[in-house]
C-alpha cells in the first residue's frame, strides 16, 4: 500500500514545526509544493543549521516525496576525493527522516540498506530523492537514490522506519532486544 495521505493537519510553509517537548518536533504534515522543510532540530547531524560538523541538508517536499541537492566536502572524505560511505549513509538516513513530514508522525530507523553503485565524489553536485514505497501499520518502507548531474544513479537505499510515540525520545534506558 502506498501512503500519501496526510494523517494530521497541514503545516504552513516557513513556520516552525510544533514542539511537543523542548526540541522534539511532532512532525506535522507539510503540504506538497511547500518551501524547504524545517530541519529535524538545529543540531541534527544531517540537517541542523547550527551543527558545523553536519551536512546541513536542505530538503524540499515534492509530488513524490522529498528531495535535496547536496555536495559532500573534505570533512566527509573517505578514500581520497571520495565521500566516506558512512557520510553517505548519514545523509540518506536523514533524508528518509524528512519523509516523516509527509506522514505526520515520529518514526526511527530500524533497518537501512545501501547499495554504493559508484563513488560519490567530493565537491560534486548530487540530487537526493526519497519516497515512501509502502506503509504497513507502523512500518514505513522507504526508498532513496543519489543521482549525479548526468542523471546517473550512484547510490540507492532502502529503509524500514518504525513509527514510535514521543516517549521513545524521552526514555533514557532502552533495552536491546533480538528479533
Ligand atoms: C531530539 C529528537 C528529535 C526527534 C526526531 C525524530 C526523527 C527524525 C530524525 C531522523 C534522523 C534519521 C533517523 C535516525 O537516525 S533514527 C536513530 C537510529 N535508530 C534508532 O535509534 C532506533 C533504535 N531501535 C529501536 O529503538 C527499536 O528497535 C524500534 C523502536 C525501532 C523498534 O522496536 P519495537 O520493539 O517497537 O519494534 P520491533 O523490533 O518489534 O519491530 C516491529 C515490527 O517491525 C518488524 N521488523 C523489525 N525489523 C525488521 C526488518 N529489518 N525487516 C522487516 N521487518 C522488520 C518486526 O518483525 C515487527 O513486525 P510485526 O511483528 O509487528 O509485524
From TrEMBL:
Keyword Hydrolase found: yes
Alphabetized UniProt keyword annotations: Apoptosis, Cell membrane, Cell projection, Cytoplasm, Fatty acid metabolism, Hydrolase, Lipid metabolism, Membrane, Plasmid, Transit peptide
Reactions that this protein is recorded to catalyse: decanoyl-CoA + H2O = decanoate + CoA + H(+); (5Z,8Z,11Z,14Z)-eicosatetraenoyl-CoA + H2O = (5Z,8Z,11Z,14Z)-eicosatetraenoate + CoA + H(+); (9Z)-octadecenoyl-CoA + H2O = (9Z)-octadecenoate + CoA + H(+); tetradecanoyl-CoA + H2O = tetradecanoate + CoA + H(+)
Annotated signal peptide: none
EC number: 3.1.2.2
EC supergroup of this enzyme: hydrolase
Name of the protein this chain belongs to: Acyl-coenzyme A thioesterase THEM4
UniProt topology in membrane: Peripheral membrane protein
Family the UniProt entry places it in: Belongs to the THEM4/THEM5 thioesterase family.
Source lineage: Bacteria, Bacillati, Actinomycetota, Actinomycetes, Mycobacteriales
Gene Ontology MF annotations: hydrolase activity
Amino acid at each position: 500500500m502506498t501512503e500519501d495521505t496526510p494523517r494530521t493537519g497541514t503545516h504552513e510553509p516557513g513556520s516552525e514545526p510544533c514542539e511537543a517537548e523542548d526540541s522534539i518536533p511532532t512532525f506535522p504534515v507539510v503540504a506538497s509544493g511547500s518551501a524547504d522543510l524545517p530541519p529535524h532540530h538545529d543540531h541534527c547531524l544531517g540537517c541542523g543549521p547550527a551543527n558545523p560538523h553536519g551536512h546541513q541538508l536542505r530538503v524540499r517536499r515534492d509530488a513524490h516525496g522529498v528531495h535535496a541537492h547536496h555536495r559532500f566536502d573534505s570533512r566527509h572524505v573517505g578514500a581520497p576525493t571520495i565521500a566516506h560511505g558512512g557520510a553517505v549513509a548519514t545523509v540518506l538516513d536523514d533524508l528518509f527522516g524528512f519523509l516523516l513530514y509527509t506522514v505526520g508522525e515520529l518514526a526511527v530507523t530500524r533497518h537501512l540498506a545501501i547499495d554504493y553503485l559508484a563513488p560519490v565524489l567530493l565537491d560534486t553536485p548530487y540530487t537526493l530523492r526519497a519516497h515512501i514505497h509502502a506503509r504497513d501499520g507502523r512500518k514505513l518502507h522507504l526508498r532513496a537514490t543519489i543521482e549525479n548531474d548526468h542523471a546517473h544513479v550512484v547510490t540507492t537505499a532502502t529503509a524500514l522506519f518504525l513509527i514510535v510515540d514521543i516517549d521513545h525520545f524521552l526514555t533514557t534506558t532502552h533495552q536491546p532486544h533480538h528479533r
